[in-house]
Amino acid sequence: MNKSQGTRDGAPKGHSVSPYYDLEHVAAEVRKGRHRARIGGAWDEIGQLQFEYLRSHGLEPQMRLLDVGCGSLRGGVHFARYLEVGHYYGIDLSQDLLDAGHDIELRQLGLQERVPRSNLLATADFDAGGFGVAFDMLLAQSVFTHLTSNHIRLCLARMADVTRPGAVFFATVFLVPDGDDPWGPVRQPPAGIVSYPASNPYHYRPADIASWVTDLPWRPEAIEDWSHPRGQQMATFVRTDGPRR
User: 205: phi > 0 → left, psi -120 to 50 → alpha, else beta; which?
Assistant: First the structure.
């Protein structure tokens, strides 16, 4: 694999979707030892928050979890310790971030043997079929906030192929607060991050979120505040019976 490229199938270069697609810049940041900062920082706070949320919403050690956009394993280090050996999987755009997660973060905690390197895959199109696993739970923390609706629908379609009926997909989003114009910039409480309807970071209305699963075997459920320090809300989707169309 060409590590400067960063994925097995070639993500677009530049900032056409979000800065996370600029894989050369991501690689340069990782080489500087900035793999934690590159995925947004708040390493301890948000990593622990992800773990506690999923555990309180049904994650059990025997389950198989797919961490979508896992980066350098901010949440992954917690899940790796909790889940049975080999039951944590992650996908990300950047091979460099995945390598930093496995070679630095897991290693310094003595957790490398709990996550085979083959459980971490770089992919630009959310293709997790190569794992050969029907997942019980999925998480996309601070992923949909950096994606267009079409990218999100692609993600949900791909995830439908690798989940069992009843599996739950948790994904964070920026919502448009009541009374705000959804077609203009929105300042997100409590941190004051500004989100946009057509550029990164993206915000969405509840109706937009429901539309993502049209003709897909997912049922949208709750959207709730989960005390994210930057105001991202948690959307929940449940895998229904049948293949995707």
Answer: beta
- At 141, the pLDDT band (50, 70, 90 cuts) reads very high
Separation of alpha carbons 179 and 158, rounded Å: 34
> Pairing mode, if any, of strands 218-225 and 88-92?
unpaired
CA distances from 136 to 65, 86, 166 (A): 6, 14, 8
Q: How confident is the model at residue 109 (pLDDT cuts 50, 70, 90)?
A: very high
Cα–Cα distance for residue pair 170/217, rounded to 1 Å:
15
CATH assignment of 19-239, among 3.40.50.150, 3.40.50.880, 3.40.1650.10, 3.30.70.330? 3.40.50.150
Neighbours of 168 (CB within 10 A): 21
pLDDT tens, 149-185? 999 999 999 999 999 999 999 999 999 988 899 999 9
Rounded-to-integer distance, Cα 154 and Cα 188, Å:
26
Cis peptide before 190 (omega within 30 of 0): yes
End-to-end CA distance of the chain: 32
- Give residue limits of the domains in the chain: 19-239
Rounded Cα–Cα distance for residues 13 and 93 (Å): 11
Looking at the chain, list the stretches that DSSP marks H as alpha helix, in order from N- to C-terminal side: 23-31, 35-38, 43-56, 76-82, 95-100, 107-108, 149-160, 206-211
Of 242, 198, 191, 189, nearest to 216 by C-alpha is 242
Give the predicted TM-score (pTM) of the model: 0.90
